[in-house]
Design goal:
With 246 residues, the chain is mainly beta. The chain has one domain: 3-methyladenine DNA Glycosylase, Chain A (Roll). 9% of the residues lie in helices and 23% in strands. It has three helices and eight strands; from the N terminus they run αβββββααβββ. The chain has helices at 35-42, 130-136, 150-157, and strands spanning 46-51, 54-67, 94-99, 103-109, 117-128, 177-180, 190-193, 208-211. Strands 1, 2, 3, 4, 5, 6, 7 and 8 form an eight-stranded antiparallel beta sheet that branches. β4 and β5 form a beta hairpin. The termini are far apart. The chain binds a DNA duplex (13 and 13 nucleotides) through β3, β4 and α3.
DNA sequence: GCTAGGATTTACT
DNA sequence: GTAAATCCTAGCA
């Protein structure tokens, strides 16, 4: 059985100090640990993305860890594919995937190169760039909904497949994407539980971490196998048996 | 080649 | 609370 790791005290980072540590960037070594260890440590960190419209900064409030080819909830459970290749890549990079035909979700790659390990970014609080996010997330009724949920978060940051494998730890101050130290929450404010939407053997693994009481944390939903609308003998509509239209 | 299902969100009842 | 939207991936015949 897997135990939820305690929020780790990474040697290169400490609680933000008044001298500006919160604005400094996380080192790549931060991500050189396994995803279940990195995940709770990412809470309170700030993901900054420069776009043509300006900079959006997001404080992470909810994450999920996916680790190893044996993780039944992971995209890597069936080994390396073109889709998940960046998940096997070097740490500190982004793994962006397309899902449900319309949404993008983003992970931060962890562990040494060659290990399938990542932390799904599920929720965050927009710190700067509200106007930019408001345009992208026009359907959000409140600010807390800008990045509550993995697809909303990706949308708020303007992430898509062009950002797959992007380096979050690229040297230089002009790097388009980076993760800042931010202000990690107190350890007793970090909650954990089973991962959202993961069923089967992976459903019991408490690798979802979130900041207790934060309004930008998405509600937990247990895994529910979707049933595809099918012709069911008397197909009312739809191409019976045919391949999907392109 | 075909089919089932998906780390989701949103609109509608 | 429920169902639809929509495209990709991977298993299977």
């Amino acid at each position: 059985m897997t135990h939820p790791p305690r929020p780790a005290e990474h040697p290169t980072e400490a609680v933000a100090d008044p001298t500006g540590t919160a604005r400094s960037r996380l080192d790549r070594s931060f991500f050189l640990r396994d995803a279940p260890e990195v995940a709770p440590d990412l809470l309170g960190r700030v993901l900054a993305v420069d776009t043509g419209e300006g900079t959006v900064e997001l404080r992470l409030t909810e994450v999920e860890a996916y680790f190893g080819a044996n993780d039944p909830g992971s995209h890597a459970r069936n080994g390396r594919t073109a889709r998940n290749a960046s998940m096997f890549g070097p740490p500190g990079h982004l793994y962006v995937y397309f899902t449900y035909g319309m949404h993008y979700c983003a992970n931060v790659v962890c562990s040494p190169d060659g290990t399938a390990s990542g932390v799904l970014l599920r929720g965050g609080e927009v710190l700067t760039g509200h106007e930019i996010v408001a345009r992208r997330r026009a359907t959000a009724r409140r600010g807390v909904e800008y990045a509550r949920g993995p697809a909303r978060l990706a949308s708020a940051l303007g992430l898509d497949l062009t950002h797959d494998a992007a380096d979050l730890c690229a040297p230089g101050d002009d790097a388009p994407m980076r993760i800042l130290h931010g202000t990690p929450p107190a350890p007793d404010l970090i909650g954990c539980g089973p991962r959202t939407g993961v069923g089967g053997a992976g459903a019991d693994t408490p690798w979802r971490f979130y900041i207790e009481g934060d309004p930008t944390v998405s509600p937990y939903r247990a895994h529910v196998p979707r049933r595809r609308a099918r012709p069911a003998g008397d197909a009312p509509n739809g191409p019976a048996g045919g391949a999907r239209p392109r």
